[in-house]
Here is the input.
Amino acid sequence: MAHALRDKYAIVGTGKSQLGRVPGVSTLGLLEQAIAQALDEAGLKNSDVDGVICRGPDDMYCFHQHIARRLDINCGFSTSLDNGGASQILSISMACMAIEAGLATTVVCGYGRDSWSRTHATKEARTQTDLVPAAQRPREFGPEHGYFAAVAPHAFGARRHMHEFGTTREDFAEIACAFREHALRNPEAMMKEPLTRADYLAARYIVEPFGLFDCSILSDGAGAVVVTSAERARDLKSRPVTIKGFATFNNTKGWFEEDHMVSTAAQESGARAYKMAGVGPSDIDTGQIYDCFTYMVLTQLEDYGFARKGEGGEFVRSGALRLGGALPTNTSGGQLSEAHVEGMLQIVEGARQLQGRYDASRQVRDAEIALVSGHGGNTVCHSTLILGKA
Amino acid sequence: MSDPQTTKSAYAKPIPVPSHESRPFWEALRQHKLTMPKCSACGHRWFPPTLLCPSCRSAEVVWEPVSGRGKVFSFVNFHRNYHKGFADERPYCVAVVALDEGPRMISNVIGIAPDEVRCDMAVEVVYEDIAETATLAKFKPVG
Here is the structure.
């Protein structure tokens, strides 16, 4: 029997703020821009919205309340999320659940953060190397050994995968170069210069085995979507995208435990989402895969069943991720080359690909089903969204 | 009198701040003993420490010495400067060490060039007194 919520809800509007270096516009302002675009697309007024599920910087208390206030609305269901890069798909899952429970009818989901401005806009800001609020930074079991920030744990995973399966930095290079090539087709993308394998290999190391181009970029930006029932979507002006399946799974025992570094929570999250959607890896026409670091794409491609475990390198070397390849992936440039908005823009990109709204140079041909992933928290949280052409 | 800012022995790296749960770990390291939590009720061993056994919730948690031997589960070499105390040592190796007894911990592999470290390399503990109040457990290749 088909899952009761399969295709029952839909994304009816998508929006992006200005992306990149947007000094002077706050996190909340960026998200206002994205939400306005999403509601415009759907032809909805602010007063049609009765749910807000959002996420912003880690040091903002009750972020959703600030957003709802800016929309001048009261909410039947609203909350902020705290599951790292897995939050944004989770917000869409929660929107479906809230509507199903009768708590709301039309829910705005969004993420915004002024990460570039916070770390680069002023001389004072440039001394910041860590976006984690001071009170949340560890004071033992890390800093005393020189273990800092988010690059290193992911680099541990990359190193272990290289050791177990013979994966190489050349494999990571193909991921970085493919997404950069996609970004060059996306006028909104931050990165405007071509990237070659030689550029990748010549770049300085950050935390080895990761070099500069293994790491996602710091951006100011926001993204938003509007979720409502598929039935209601038929009366709205936009072309809806149906929510076929969603899931989340967190390997909360820890990144260092078991084999989590090389077999992520995407395995379980993906299996659950595929089951809900009634599809498998071979049905997916485009992947929008959470790319905080190149390696995380490689392991997720395996964890989602696009390649066997250990064969992700071979899969990407085949050109699979490129437009025209077996699985055109991160067709906006992703977080490595479009902008890093914690996966929210990849939800927008997945939906827009299924609406078929791009010109031929960046449209995935005949795209009917997209898989979007979110990953983060303490490296262990994962979420999956499977979208379908209406 | 020496100017405190120019005292050569000033230790410029972060000094660990123990929590209620971790205090015995740091106190044992002062005695050059590497210990790990163990549940007296079910025998489970784990790290980092918690108030109760994460497996059976017993409060009978004891700190037991371990062999100090293990393997490098994974490692990275820091090139970017995140903290002035480590600036001159870059690149330096930070590793997840899997102790023979099971628990895994963050540490440094020393006594070998960072680019010669390998996953699954056998290592053993070495103690480094960094302050009157703190000793670190680091690891060096066996043999």
